[in-house]
Amino acid sequence: MFLDGNRLREVFLRAKKERFGIIASNVVFDSTIRGVLEGYDKQKSDGLLQMSTGACKYAAGSSKSTEAGAEIISAMVKSIAKQYKNTGVGLHIDHATPNYFDFVKFCIENNLVSSVMIDASKENFEENVRITKEVVAIAHKHNVLVEGEIGYIKGTEDEIVSDDELYTDPQEALEYVRQTNVDLFAASVGTNHGVSKGHKLTLQLDLIKEIDDLLIKNNLETGIVLHGASGLTIEQQQKAVKNGVVKINKDTDYQMVMAQAVQAYWEKEKDAVVRPEGITEDNYMPDKGRFDPRKWMIKAENAVQEEVERLVQIVDSKGKSILI
Ligand SMILES: [Zn+2]
Asked: Model's pTM, two decimal places?
């Protein structure tokens, strides 16, 4: 079932209270949407589907209109989600930078999404707060949640930054959350993502706990988000969740398993479309029973479903849908 922002808030509050994670899965086609939903539904877990601005452009075809693409993906997500009764899912916009402000506003005002991420982390702190607050004002009026991120490194534009400066400062995080009133906060704790991309950082999972403790101490219900989690071990992901992460973003994992599943299919079934050596043109007939796209796309879809089921069990959201 599709969840609006208010119901999605319940999902994150429960996750925060009971210390489990919600998997946020990047989607673009009906196949990925269905694969992800099958996985959540089978495990009776809630979840989030997210679309990047790049995914929206892709979905729109040659017009590359992010607005048109968001309408298409949102319509697919909402109608496909109706088929699944054991999972509540929201739709989220991943990493919208300030130049996508009008796009974000369009999606909120046209009721396309349950939550949005405004990523003004490249701006300085004051500017980031200002832009984020503006998005929060529009979003909360329409019951849409907002995720924000900080990341600007002070006064170091031309200098080499020290690794320490690439981690979120808990006090700064608290200040940002307080001033902006975001519902979700993306922390930089050493995954290969955002400001720390390209730097080899040590993962600081205790930093999550430090930020989370500080937010709780200040009566803020904000959930912490972990980006760039595809390379983490099971233990690291579980510790991140126990320390306060409620939303774990997943994109690369799915891309990999889809490609592997399709590759394995075609390695085996190559002769369905390619004439094997030694067989003459006259004696070769391509095999429609094997090249029908439904035959191999379903392999990708099933691989996504299996991956979702695996991830849901790692973050312990299995059987915890607010719908059951
Ligand atoms: Zn991200």
From this structure: 0.94
